[in-house]
Amino acid sequence: VQLVESGGGLVQPGGSLRLSCAASGFTFSTYTMMWYRQAPGKERELVAAISSDGGSRNYADSVKGRFTISRDNAKNTVYLQMNSLKPEDTGVYYCRAPSLRLWGQGTQVTVSS
Known about the structure:
It contains no helices and eleven strands. By secondary structure, it is mostly beta strands. The protein is globular.
């Protein structure tokens, strides 16, 4: 049972990145999935959540209108499309299956000129 994130990197302010989280070992299509992030020196915070069928999505106020969470249940993958990135979006981004108390290893996102 695991989650593996990918897609992080260094991007300039105003740029975009797409994070992916590949799930294995459980029935992905039946679980709500979430993205969290942790900035240096700060607590981990919830960024976005998506219901098992993708019909319900929620976002932190700080990313509304810029980030989009989506999922492909056929590929057991959840995504986070991040647009109009700001330096304050810098941090390690984690995928989570809350009902399983399962975290991925994280992927670093750095927004800097």
